[in-house]
Specification:
This protein is mostly helical. 73% of the residues lie in helices and 0% in strands. The termini are far apart.
Length: 115
């Protein structure tokens, strides 16, 4: 019975969209609420309203949708890992990380071509 339960958990984790290389599904409202709560904890005004935060996260999600599949797995994994370790997993964070990584990769290729 115990073995069956462990097997079920492993199979379930392998069948999740994340395991299949799809973009993580995040709760935009939860991300924005957490940002607002964090600002309140340090007695700082939020950077933006909840409405603006949700709009920006949804826009980042749409952009990320177009980039995700064409982004090398190594960059996606690194960006997800960085966001998790910082406790700031959001579509904006993932999008920024991927864009920066792609820019750096592109710049290094340009520099190599100049030599």
């Amino acid at each position: 019975m115990k073995r069956a339960a462990v097997l079920a958990v492993v199979l379930l984790s392998l069948s999740t969209p994340h395991a299949l290389g799809r973009m993580p599904e995040l709760s935009v409202k939860a991300v924005c609420k957490a940002r607002s709560d964090d600002a309140r904890k340090v007695k700082s005004p939020p950077d933006q309203s909840m409405t603006d935060c949700v709009r920006d996260e949804e826009a980042a999600k749409q952009q990320l949708n177009t980039l995700w599949e064409s982004t090398p797995v190594s960059i996606r994994k690194r960006c997800e890992s960085d966001a998790r370790s910082l406790g700031t997993m959001s579509y904006l964070d993932l999008l920024s990380c991927i864009q920066i990584a792609k820019d750096l990769k592109s710049d290094s290729k340009k520099d190599a071509g100049k030599r």
